Amino acid sequence: MKHFHPAHPLRIFAISGILTIALAAFVFGQLGFAGLWIFTILVILEVTFSFDNAVINSKVLSRMSLIWQKIFLTVGIFIAVFVVRFLLPIVIVMLASNNGFGEVVNLALNQPEQYGETLHKAAPMIDAFGGAFLIMIGISYFMDRRKDIHWLGSIEKRLASAGRFENLKVLVMLSVAMVLYATVGEEYRTTVLAASILGVLLHMGLELFGSIFEKHQKTSNAVKQTGMAAFASFLYLEVLDASFSFDGVIGAFAITNSVILIIAGLGAGAIWVRSLTVYLLRTGTLAKYRFLEHGAHWAILALGIIMFVKLYHVEPPEWMTGSLGLVFIGTAIVSSIIESRREQPKDDDGYVGL
Predict the structure, then answer these.
(1) pTM beyond 0.85, yes or no
(2) CA–CA dist 160, 139 (Å, integer)
(3) What is the pLDDT of residues 165-192, one digit of tens each?
(4) N or C: which terminal CB in the chain sees fewer CB atoms within 10 Å?
């Protein structure tokens, strides 16, 4: 029997493929070719939206111990599929409609159109929270004075230099929250203010939680994160996944009102994103393409800004929102290849050595 290398694509993506085929067969059995087509669109939508998420995941995951990496890929998948893409929207609808859990579940399964409408009504709260959390991730990465590799030259250098003022990013985000409060529709001003501040506080809390236990590990000469430090990173990854999924879940209701179809499609997409994370981790892609992480964080910033723009009833098409991340990442990969070739020594005839 042939054994594949741990980084071989067949070994990494096999489970994703099997589960996707199983879900596709279930959808086809229930809804025929029409349902299968929508299922395929939802899978592609989720992977496109979350490609940059996979890049960030692989970076964080590389600092965690092997056991926590496995927890992320097992328990984490359950959380991503069932909790984030099914239970979390139900909780949001509960808050938006003041209905109980059982009533909302019944609404989701038996009255999907009304469920979708209620979820859309909660969009300002979701966009304010998700936008604030994602933008905090982006500016925290770029406003780091220890960062010495810059992709977009002077822009990233200035942001890194601004990182010496520790409270600047919080000041910026709280100022943005106040601007949102003063300019969005009066009927949801308070909701938007509270949700955006909560997004900032959650990022700060997870960052603080992780740094406390990381410092303890450093004094213990630990190489990889374990225990509470790894748990903090695990929580960070799950919240990040939830922030990315909000847009996908709401966007999915523009395609279909079938909650089962949405869970199956987005769930399969989430599984592929986890496999992609493992692939990036095991193949050392981040080290190979030095600007890939930069591109992913610019994509995250762009998605956060788009979520804020939606508060003003501007709805960019789904294909544009999803493609934006791929454009940033694709450009970062090309830039990395060009930079790598520039740094390679040339022979006497001026050719780059291989």
Answers:
(1) no
(2) 9
(3) 888 999 999 999 999 999 999 999 999 9
(4) N
